[in-house]
Write a structure and sequence with these properties.
By secondary structure, the chain is an alpha/beta fold. The chain is built from 24 helices and 21 strands. The strands form four sheets. It has a seven-stranded parallel sheet with strand order 11-12-10-13-14-9-15, with helices on both faces. Bound molecules: adenosine-5'-diphosphate and magnesium ion.
């Protein structure tokens, strides 16, 4: 039933609701409140303080007086009192107030208090007659012309339309076992709870259901294999590959390679594997090994990197590595000349290239392969699942290898990568020294600069991630330029300094980064654009200004730019913030180099929205669940196990409503997962 089917809600309202993504009455039921106004805890007027938000229970001591003020606006004022004192209530431009409030009547008022020379006042409070009783009021996300109160009225009508018995996706038996309330009760209480306890019960039930549905959906995707692969890999060349390397592989790298080799040689289904390893753990060598085996078996390998710089760097690494072999390599990126791209694409289509490294240029329609055997994506979190799929579409069910340096807490990983098998590289190359991390204040800058000069004098290089001027800005051009200019004029006037930021043109950035890699610059001032993967083993110092503005995982990524070679490296976090939470977070950075531990802390402290930066994890939009809630994630995991154990299969008749929810979730926000 469309929203316009509700009494008092016409076509115009329906259009407003549409803006909120609400089309049907069913959508309204799951349009959960953004927050609540708790009118059950009433404050006495004598206790209210400037800036606080309160619910008071008071009598209207004067009639509401309307005055016209500047701009033709109406100011409505009244005085209210309880047995401890009086205060003013004020509204702007609501000409109905005087008709809605009765002189001498008793009401709940809910709003924010400001105190000035004339005493305390409550600004534009919401209110209700005391006769209606104290309740917890839902507050909905609103849009132009559609306020929370109107939405609340529509939801109230919708809830009345619910039948006596609603189809509950969670079977009764499971609900009882895990102490979850029924769906109908949950829907009533999430919108109009009578007590805080009822609200908590409702939320627990709905969050569990949503995570459960997600969990089951990801599992069934994993089972739906991508069919039989047309790529037949018979022989393992990984031992031969190892002889090409200038170093010995770590055990963790060997294990990851063995996982991949067994995937591609022993199964008829294509490999679907994620290799997860901290920055610097040597994921590139793992990928190169797999590509080598595939190429030596006569199939093509494609390696996709998120940026030109990275693609180029990988191409150079592989060119050196495979110089003595018969592998034919190519680089395909957007910045190549059109004629060059054309030539490379033609050789890819003809099978004259065995191994191509590239950027998004690899997945455009123009790129065709002769017989794509394996697709590798580096820095997985930069690619949407759809892009991954597009690359795969260029072969006959080719193998997939996904690499990620974003350590994701285990509970979350189980869900996010539910469709992938995982190999973890939990060991750094032995030559690697842990980066020493310290916390400093801006007053220490002279000492820090002195230290940088010493390192540079010893032949090393340094990064400075410059301050961000405004809260929330992640790439402040002006500040980067200014900061670098300062350094070049004063402390580092005799040292080659370069600067890159978000507005630096790609080819210019490319040039600077490769010059930095070639040690033509000793100091690189940058915004966070350096975050992803460029390998400069000679760099030994990373200074991060305003360290408190970054998430822990981001700091960890930045720190990963140093400590990639044989030299002792340092990460200096500069912050003048001294509040306990900031200090605690930065202390975590100083205490550990373990990306997984840091990710766990980060998730706990900041929540997943920040954790992932943008919505790049490819999961469907959740309406109520919160990925930071590990307890609920674990519970849903357990229930999913239980359900599959009890009912064997999601297609079981008793699970029909649950299966419908799974299908719905993935139809709604999950296109990026499914296609
Ligand atoms: P990441 O996992 O961050 O992609 P890379 O693959 O770029 O890491 O490896 C980081 C550096 O470590 C590279 O310079 C690489 O040559 C080197 N490396 C990789 N594996 C080993 C190893 N087993 N022993 C020594 N050095 C290694
Ligand atoms: Mg890498």
């Amino acid at each position: 039933m469309p929203v316009s089917g509700l009494k008092g809600f016409g076509q115009k309202r329906a259009e407003q609701f549409e803006k909120l993504g609400v089309r049907s009455v069913g959508d309204l039921l799951t349009f959960y409140p953004r927050t609540y106004e708790d009118w059950t805890s009433v404050e006495k007027i004598e206790n209210v303080q400037d800036g606080g938000t309160y619910c008071i229970r008071a009598v209207l001591g004067t009639p509401v007086s309307d005055t016209r003020i500047a701009g033709g606006r109406i100011l409505s004022k009244a005085s209210v009192y309880d047995d401890t004192g009086a205060l003013k209530v004020v509204w702007f431009n609501n000409r109905y107030i005087s008709q809605m409030l009765v002189y001498g009547g008793e009401y709940f008022f809910f709003g924010k208090i400001t105190v000035d020379n004339y005493g305390a006042q409550m600004l534009a409070p919401t209110f209700a007659s005391v006769a209606k009783g104290a309740v917890i009021h839902p507050v909905y996300r609103s849009t132009a012309g559609l306020v929370s109160k109107t939405i609340s009225a529509a939801v109230e009508q919708s809830l009345k339309l619910l039948p006596e018995q609603v189809n509950d996706p969670i079977p009764e038996q499971i609900r009882q076992k895990y102490n979850l309330c029924g769906l109908k009760q949950a829907l009533l209480d999430i919108h109009f709870p009578h007590t805080r306890e009822a609200l908590e019960e409702a939320r627990r039930r709905l969050v569990t259901e949503e995570l459960l549905v997600l969990n089951l959906g990801m599992r069934s995707m994993k089972q739906q294999s991508r069919g039989v692969s047309g790529v037949k890999i018979e022989k393992d060349f990984s031992a031969e590959f190892e002889t090409l390397l200038p170093f010995a592989l770590t055990n963790a790298q060997r294990r990851a390679i063995a996982d991949c080799v067994s995937d591609v040689t022993q199964k008829s289904a294509p490999m679907n594997r994620l290799v997860q390893g901290d920055v610097g753990s040597g994921k590139t060598a793992v990928a190169a090994s797999v590509c080598y085996t595939v190429a030596k078996n006569g199939f093509q390998a494609a390696f996709m990197a998120p940026t030109e710089i990275l693609a180029r760097q990988h191409f150079e690494t592989f060119s050196k590595l495979f110089a003595g072999t018969d592998l034919r390599l190519a680089l395909l990126t957007g910045s190549l000349k059109e004629s060059e791209k054309k030539r490379i694409r033609a050789s890819l289509a003809d099978g004259e290239i065995d191994f191509v490294v590239g950027t998004h240029a690899l997945i455009t329609d123009k790129t065709e392969f002769y017989n794509l055997g394996v697709a590798v994506t580096d820095e997985q979190h930069r690619f949407g699942v759809a892009q991954r799929a597009k690359l795969l579409g260029k072969g006959d069910n080719p193998h997939l290898l996904v690499m990620s340096a974003t350590p994701i807490p285990r509970t979350l990983g189980l869900i996010i990568f539910g469709d992938l098998d995982i190999s973890v590289i939990d060991e750094l190359p032995p030559s690697r020294k842990a980066v020493k991390t310290v916390m400093r204040g801006s007053a220490d800058r002279p000492k820090i600069y002195h230290f940088i000069r010493q390192e540079i004098a010893a032949g090393r290089q340094a990064y400075i991630v410059c301050p961000l001027i405004e809260e929330g800005e992640t790439d402040n051009v002006a500040s980067a330029e200014e900061y670098a200019a300062e350094l070049m004029l004063r402390d580092f006037s005799d040292i080659p300094v370069a600067v890159v930021h978000g507005k630096t043109k790609p080819d210019e950035k490319e040039r600077i980064m490769s010059d930095f890699a070639a040690n033509k610059y000793s100091l690189l001032v940058a915004t966070t654009v350096i975050e992803v993967g460029v390998d400069v083993p000679n760099a030994s110092v990373m200074v991060i200004e305003n360290a408190e503005r970054f998430g822990l995982s981001q700091l960890h990524q930045l720190r990963g730019r140093v400590g990639r070679g044989e030299f002792q490296s340092y990460c200096i976090l500069i912050s003048d913030m001294r509040n306990p939470l900031t200090t605690e977070r930065l202390r975590v950075m100083c205490a550990t180099n373990d990306g997984f531990k840091i990710a766990d802390e980060d998730l706990k402290m900041r929540g997943p929205g920040d954790f992932f930066g943008e919505r790049q994890h490819g999961l469907p939009q959740m309406s109520i669940a919160d990925f930071a809630d590990t307890k609920m994630l674990e519970l849903s995991q357990k229930i999913a196990d239980d359900i599959l154990f009890t009912y064997k299969d999601l297609r079981n008749d008793e699970l029909r409503p649950l299966k419908a929810e799974v299908d719905r979730l993935f139809a709604r926000g999950g296109q990026n997962i499914m296609n």
